[in-house]
Amino acid sequence: MGTIAVLRTPISRQELQQYTLDGEMVKAVVDVAQGIMAVGGDLHADEEVVLLEAGARQHDLWGINLYPDLPSDDWIEFDSMINLRPSQGNRSRGVDDPTVRERIRVVLSRLVPA
Known about the structure:
The protein is an alpha+beta fold.
């Protein structure tokens, strides 16, 4: 398992690069309530556990993939098995609710400014 970091303060895209799995993509789990994000795990589930152990609530956690080298319009991919939550109305690996996607973008823009 990779080294998982919980980001609470802003970092650059260049700094985010150190958490890539294959030189291109960073798996991340965003806590939309606390405005924090875990990065560096091999699986979104690993990052989710770290945040849950730190007091996060399951329904506030959403998995995404980040591509630091891509332009801002293309660098977020809303795709993770942890997002499958029929009880919350999310029936896909994506993030179906546009409001939740926007909350994720707000956290991301604060933690990894363009």
